Amino acid sequence: MSEIFVKMNLDELENGDFLATSDEVPGLVAQGRTITETLEIAQDVTRKIIESYQEHGDEFPLSLRSKTIPIPEKAKISFKIEVDSTFNISAFVARQKANLYLLMHLGELVSAGQPELWMEKHIYWRLPIIYTLPSVGTLGTIGELLVQIDNGNIELKEPQSIKEIKNRVENLLKNTSLPAGVQV
Predict the structure, then answer these.
(1) Residue 180 within any structural domain of the chain
(2) pLDDT of 95-123, one tens digit each?
(3) Predicted local confidence at residue 85, as pLDDT
(4) pLDDT at 147 over 70
(5) How many domains does one find in the chain?
(6) What is the gyration radius of the CA atoms in the chain, in angstroms?
(7) Could you tell me the pLDDT band of residue 57, with boundaries at 50, 70 and 90?
(8) Can you tell me whether residue 121 is helix, strand or coil?
(9) CA-CA distance, 135 to 150, in Å (whole number)?
(10) What pLDDT does residue 164 have?
(11) Most buried residue, 19, 28, 84, 158, by CB count within 10 Å?
(12) The model's pTM
């Protein structure tokens, strides 16, 4: 399997979609609803452009020649795409912001778990929403929220409303055997 690294230009369109192009791959234009979808489409289009050059015996553009090696007809190719973004919000700050948000909307028994990077329409920190009882410990994960890495805006991912999260807490409590004497 051969890998080719291609620099992509990623722009957000007025309608909220994303557009990927590349100065290194002539003819590459990919549009999607999210960053992830757009980059996946861009990978596929890049692969097809390179395959087309090979099938027709065309010479690769100068921008690709230094990146490509001869690829057998039935080879498997892997593409890596690099995305640049400014991290204004660290994982630690994202968790602090998420915990404050959860405290204000759901109380002290709900907290944010370990953040991980996530790409959708924007680049986010994705954090699980965890329900805990002081005398028992963690009862379970009841949802996820997203914190944008550039501006710190918070969005509920799953479920998409505070009311739905409260319903999940009720269902979790109904379906959990609590030790004798534990009150909720």
Answers:
(1) no
(2) 999 999 999 999 999 999 999 988 877 78
(3) 67
(4) yes
(5) 2
(6) 23
(7) confident
(8) coil
(9) 37
(10) 93
(11) 28
(12) 0.56
In-domain check, residue 29: yes
Cα 183 to chain centroid, rounded = 38
Q: At 170, is the secondary structure helix, strand, or coil?
A: helix
Cis peptide before 72 (omega within 30 of 0): no
Residue whose tokens read 């992509």: 8
CA dihedral 32, 35, 40, 41 (to 10 degrees): 20
| 46 in Cβ contact with 6 (< 8 Å) | yes
Q: Residue 76 above 80 pLDDT? A: no
Residues 120-137 have pLDDT tens digits of: 777 889 999 999 888 888
* Mean pLDDT confidence for 133-162: 89
Residue range of the domain that includes 153:
91-174
d(CA 167, CA 165): 5
Band (pLDDT 50/70/90 cuts) for residue 1 is very low
In 42-52, which positions are buried (b, 16+ CB within 10 angstroms) versus exposed (e)?
bbebbeebbee
129 and 105 fall within a common domain: yes
Question: How is residue 79 written in tokens?
Answer: 């593409």
CA distance 173 to 134: 14
Domain at 61, CATH number: 3.30.160.250
Same domain, 95 and 159: yes
Is the domain of 96 the same as that of 146? yes
